[in-house]
Amino acid sequence: MVGDRRGWWWRFDLRSIVRGILAIGVLLLAAVGSQADDRLPDESALLARLAANADDYEAAYELGNHYYDRGLRSEAEEQFRAALTSQPDHIGARVGLGAVLNELGESEAALEELNRVLQLAPDDVLAICGRGQAFYALRRYAEAMEDYERALQIDPKSQLAYYYRGIAFADAGIFKEAIREWERVVQIEPNSETARIAREGIEVLDSMLSSQ
Hints:
Blueprint: H1 14-29, H2 43-52, H3 57-69, H4 73-86, H5 91-103, H6 107-120, H7 125-137, H8 141-154, H9 159-171, H10 175-188, H11 193-211
């Protein structure tokens, strides 16, 4: 899920192949955070709660997570916005909205949402990483890397920050450095989903390096 603190390419040259393969990992990681909750929400129960009380922002927030996990980005956006209508300072819903907007190509709007989160919670690592991704989508690469570094200063074991730094290095064609970043991801928590995706990236880049 995005909001409950648990994851954002193209054609035929070498770098584009890397991007295309790793895009799956980026989308999955938009939902990775420091307080993962793997329980699957009961959609019908959440809808019933909202039918009984349209201001139940926690139900809207959980439903947004549920839709996000199913790949229903527009529906997720609607529910995150509904949660924020009732509770404007709900950090999880605003981080979730920022992630969705960035994936929908509305990166400037995503920045606005994530900057608001960071006004409320300046050290929120997931929001910092998300803002880094929005900067990256806007080709503001230096600012993206600054955010990843800041996230690691706050939490030296942030798998997400290391993973996104690896994406940046891979995108720049600096494959050995990308591999080193993803090896850190695996070392931190070997059995996590983030580590599994990082291993896939390492295999891709190792294969490319060996064929050069």
